[in-house]
Amino acid sequence: MIKLFKKLNSQYLRFKLKQSPQKTLFYGFLTYVLAGFILLSLPWLQKVDTSLLDNLFIATSAVSTTGLVTISVFDSYNFAGQFVVMSLFQLGGIGYLTFTTFMLLSTTRRITRWHKKIISSEFTLPKTIKIKDFLKSVVLFTIIMETIGTILFFIAFKLDGMETGSAIWTSIFHSISAFCTAGFSLFNSGFTNYVDNGFINFIISFLAIAGSLGFIVVTDFVYWAKNRDHKLSFTTKIILFGFLILLSFGFLFFYFTEPSITSLEGVSRLYAAFFQAMTAMTTVGFNTVDFGAFALPMLLVTIFLMYIGASPSGTAGGMKITTLTAVISIMKSRIRGDKKITFLGRTIPFERLYIATSSFIFYTSLIGLGTFVLTFTEDFDFRQILFEASSALGTVGLSMGITGGLSSIGKITIILLMFIGRLGVLTFGLAIWSKDIGEQEREILEGDIAV
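Predicted structure:
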């Protein structure tokens, strides 16, 4: 028996080392989804009978930190089931192997080359940040922020009259969900009952922005706190600059032009405008206003914000601010006839530009393809379908209320979009089409193409 175990373990290790980092991430997140699906399918984790497809949908949505649901998490699963859902979006939020690699680093003071390759593939890091420091920032910052969020939520829910036991569990669940920008809630109506509650609005915004700005920014500020001579990286500056501009853009549009928000009075209008822009930007997926009632122009603004997302190497989804920056820089430099691609006076490396343009094209194509498939399978308005597909690939979790009414093929389509969105469009592409380590390179013939 021991010999058999050693043989199987040896074969597993050879298989693991042979895979590319992208395929390892693909199999890793797929394992999380399947494990969650199996657990949620157990009858003793359910309050009512749920279909296998709905369990798979919830498991994928949790691992991808999306928050789209076809059934009510609170009404469908008991405490154990809700705990499984929470565990899945916690794992999905901090990333594959992040916690185990951190534990390995804490016990042995070193991480293997294999772990470094996986982490480097999952998190795009600037050269100024070391992997060890980054991992410490991810785990410690996550624990600190989620603890603070739990305490603040508990105070808010108690002030709202919630019973102590329920307040504790609800606070833990929503704190982790907000920081991981997962969008899962134990309230069937989301946070629409708290549109005028400034404290609740602040807690969610605080956690979501902290998680979505990304661990690159956190690590960079840790370096700066330890050494005031340290200069913030170019990546951090782009993230902060882009996030502020886009969030302000969304807030102003919502505040002045969206009828369902302009109809609110006093400070509620301010809260609602900021929160809806924030939830789309950070891809946290909570809402305090019904997006199904939004005017078409504001739906397009929301789709644009979900499409961009926030920071790389954070808990948010979307195409990422840095990708948008690179694409805009390419366009600007080509129009001006510059030989180098620059932004804020800094030259962007060709490798990063290559990744950005590939991501932009692939991401946009997937939204188009997902929307195209859903128009065949679903009997909903086009804007509802486009909104749903954008929310799924961006791992946002906002919906115009059609998720529960999707057909089986529609649910499978959204499941695929959510999974690809969490894995990353380029990582998914490389996992599907890249060669395994050790495969022979085929001969490539050079050719020209007019563009």
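Summary: The longest helix spans residues 131-159.
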